[in-house]
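Weekly modeling sync, notes
Attendees: S.R. (lead), two postdocs, one rotation student

Agenda item 3: backlog of single-chain predictions. S.R. asked that every request posted to the team notebook include the full sequence so nobody has to chase files. The rotation student volunteered to paste the first one in as an example of the format we agreed on. Action items at the bottom.

Example entry:
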Amino acid sequence: MTDQTAPTALDLPMVDPLPPETQKYFDICVEKLGFVPNVLQAYAFDIEKLNAFTAMYNDLMLGDSGLSKLEREMIAVVVSAINKCFYCLVAHGAAVRQLSGDPQLGEMLVMNYRVAPLDTRQRAMLDFAAKMTSASTEIEEPDRQRLRDVGFTDRDIWDIANVTGFFNMSNRVASATAMVPNDQYHAQAR
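Predicted structure, as returned to the notebook:
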């Protein structure tokens, strides 16, 4: 375990005191998770940026969608594996373990999603997310049609693309700022 004092390598202290709404949000994190995720602490130097980040995250990951929460977390892990984002692999790998009840699935997705026992729908979704991460300009209509062929709607494809895009952005910010995952993630759902 590391003895960590800051969520990133940047000297951007959290607003002190936090606005009441932000403090309430952080208190909910502590109540539900046992800690405040470092990504939230990292953004808390600027409450408007924190609010924009959390609004987008909450909409994409928790909002109405034809994708399950597990499927959205699976996308986060596969994108993060390709981008080698330590923060997101640890945090979202834990979420996959928790939501699936399968620690092996979380580990497989972290290492190489292609070895995981996925159904055809999940495989197509993750293949699309992987291609979008590695070569987004090469996405063509046949790629979208493969998703439709396994039951995804055009709205679902929008959601797959947006979750993938969000984690590509988040991975790059986390890597560029040396964001470290909370130690607590490592032990979750094992």
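Discussion: group reviewed the output briefly. The mean pLDDT is 95.
Action items: rotation student to repeat for the remaining queue; S.R. to check formatting next week.
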